[in-house]
Sequence to fold (401 residues):
Amino acid sequence: LRMFRIPHGKTQFQQRQRQQQQHRWQAPARHLLSWPWSSKQSSRLLAGSGGKGVEAAAAGAAARPVVHLQHGLLGSATDWVLNGPGFSLPFLLADAGYDVWLGNVRGNIFSRNHTTLGLLDPRFWAFSWDEMAARDLPAMLTQELLLSGAGEVAYVGHSQGTTLGLAFLASQAGSALAEHIKVAILLAPVTFVTHVDSVPLLALAQLNTDQVFTLLGFHEFMPSVEVLSKLEGQLCMLQPALCVNILAAICGYNPSNLDPRRLPTYVNYTPSGTSVQNMAHWSQAIRQPGEAVMRHYDYGTSCRTVLDTPWPCNQAVYGQLVPPMYNLSAINNQLVLFTGGKDRLADPRDLELMLRVLPSRHILLHQHFPDYEHLDFIWGINAAQRVYARLLGVLGALHGS
Fold:
């Protein structure tokens, strides 16, 4: 896993403000500090110390409050910073005095290394957001606490990043690490997707995604290829309507709140790839008929292949025929929700189901924007004024500043 940390705040931003006004701001990753970190390291640390490693880090006073930002489906840490300083949430947080960390989950462009498995090994891609919530996120949060010396982390997720946060808090409720999450701020939260209105995702849900792609020999889904990304960026410059159609098909598109001049930049960095199994997990969730249930990945009931060789199945993995559910009502952390009325992936009807399940006593704020689409929360022209200002206000109140 590779994480990024914004090392400077307002001071450096002010020093370079004139230069940035004259030159268009580009590739964000090289402006950030980064660390590789493995979920295996985190598991060993927590298991070996009984949580004492985190407690030891909490004993040291951090210079700045820590905020973790987690990207969405098919995204990466770059999604958060593509609008540049003064407009993107990470830079606004850094300018306000926060220690900002940007996470990446396994399988995207920044997290494609393994100690023993290569990218061509199907076992490398045998994961969904279950593993991201159970291993990747705890690894990153632990590293942030240890390196910063902070006693708590404010979590901010967008899209699938909210799914990971809720799955982690639900499955780890009461654990030492979960108790260090001061607040979970959810932008365009996604838990149930039975009313999703994304044509590509609906098409995948109608197929046995994992089986079809596996038979074809594919285990990676929509990888980020540098040459292809550059070509897509050039196409966007020549034909902005083409990019609009691509974005609209997957996530929805609000032309009045997205800068068309930045479309080549967005497409240059997205998609960042994931596993076929992860997309299959989302397909399974879409096929659940109006169920207010968030389940683990469904491996099926057959434990043998057609060639009579062993095959993962629910009984072998979970010890039961049906995948277990995430108990969202068990979450014991403070929650803040920012939702959109025109969101194709986080449909208002699914949001209603989510609100029935989440513990209402822990919801500090639910801010709804009737005109907001899914991507408006990270790339919207007015997101800094409408969303981030309120988000900073919430964090400021919680941190007493």
